[in-house]
Amino acid sequence: MNVDILAHSPQILGILTFLILNALLVSCELSLIKLRFSHFNPELLDFLREDKRLRKALDRADETVRIIRFGTTLCILGYGLFLFPLLHGLLSAFEIRHLDVPTIAPWILSFLFATALHYLVAELIARSLALQFPVVTVRISMPVVTTIGLVCRPFINILNALARALFRLSGIGEPARLESLDMQTQIEMLGEEAPEVTAVAQSILKNALMLRNLVVADVLLPRNQVQIFDLNLSLQENLVMARQTGHTRFPLCAGDLDRCVGLIHIKDLFRYEGDLQRLDLRKIKREIIRVDAEEPLEEALTKLLHHRMHMALVIDEFRGAEGVLTLERILEELVGDIQDEFDSEEEILIQPANKVGEAMVAGLTPLHELEELFGVEISSDDVSTLGGLISTELGRIPEAGEELCLQGLWFKVTEVDETRIIQVQVRKMDAEELSSGQSRQEVP
Hints:
By secondary structure, the protein is of the alpha+beta class. 52% of the residues lie in helices and 13% in strands. Strands 8-9-12-11-10 form a five-stranded antiparallel beta sheet, with helices on one face. It has a four-stranded mixed beta sheet with strand order 1-7-6-5. The chain is elongated. The N and C termini lie far apart (84 Å).
């Protein structure tokens, strides 16, 4: 056996270079994920943003992670390119050719050794350092990421454009942004590092973080479902309606929701010491705030809490009323449906259909829930519910049995009444249907 180490020094240097680069990239990604916990530590977030490179990496996490993963791919390829020939040559020099498989054995041993070395150095050690020293690790590794981004960004952009084209042609929806995926990772890591954080708490935390993606229109109660105290009716008629619904708060309106003048709390009627038959409801009304339908839900929640109110009137760009927003409907986005002993049994918004991949969906289902269920993106600035989307597209209330294809989904209206769509059968269209180019199809 005769092994000249100096003759293999370029290969050894290349192996170490790609191994260290890969370790830096892996540790940088995990450090960024770890540092995104600074959402819960504003002081740390401000400190990190003082560094221009870190500020850009935190604000544009999706782009940063794409560069990191592209870099790790290059490093693994380069690592294997240098390591396998070197190991094969060294193992062959040990004269193991007396084995029955002299050609395969060195390659198998090379693969096992290369995998073990990469896993130990570029994965376990890199991840351990990132979790223990995230700030130091990301400061050391960020120059590598920046350099790769500058050199390879044109090629990365070409690959991203090609990927989007392939997704469109195949009919497969584009994958979730890496930033949203690393947010999920953060929550899972939080549960691992703090065992007292239960599964329920993790679920609520995830929903709270995703609240930023919602606007008021996603969770409002549509105007045709809002019960009001009507100034044009007698107090007795209004009280009968209040008893039937069991609600405690009602918009006070002169005829309809567009003429809302305030809010009536049922407790104020019980506390009124005068003659109820002569009561002018305007005297006991409370103020009601107004929020825009496209306003971020977080901002609307802040307004409700600031004004100590449980209900707000939702208006459109023309100052017309679209419905109401309640604190309860916002909380349901965090913890799920809330019902008390006075609530009537509500209809199930989404339930599985007979065929796999289909569902029976109530017309009142918010569009964002439909997007999550079928993995599509629905573009609609005017409506927030499935029933509103279909009615707007058709320009009328459809009849039971009507079908249409819209935004990658097939709909069949199964139940309607005079004013709204009650239930729809929905499924995601396959690639063959999408390739036909029909974005909308009606069947009487």
